[in-house]
Amino acid sequence: MKRKNDDVHEELQRVRIPRKGEGEILAIVESMLGSNRVMLKCMDGKMRMGRIPGKMKKRIWVREGDLVIAVPWSFQDEKADIVWRYTGPQVDWLQRMGYMR
Fold this sequence. Notes:
By secondary structure, the protein is α+β, with helices and mostly antiparallel strands. It contains three helices and five strands; from the N terminus they run H-E-E-E-H-E-E-H. It has one domain: CATH 2.40.50.140. The model has no long low-confidence stretch (mean pLDDT 85).
């Protein structure tokens, strides 16, 4: 006899949160601009042009509506680098824990 819980295998996964000391902030991808560039709506209220670095380009696909961690450039605040993309369950966890407004 099978139990209901035997069919459901939940994997425990650590969720990376933005490191404030390194200048990381949460952002939502608003639009794809082409040439590894995206328009980001950051949680500090600013719109920034984001760059997908080469090490992420082929491994992690970034689409409109994705939640990402961005690091604004120190010398040009209206631009940022994307360092992490969240999956659906990770976004749900962040909302439950209050990291997103």
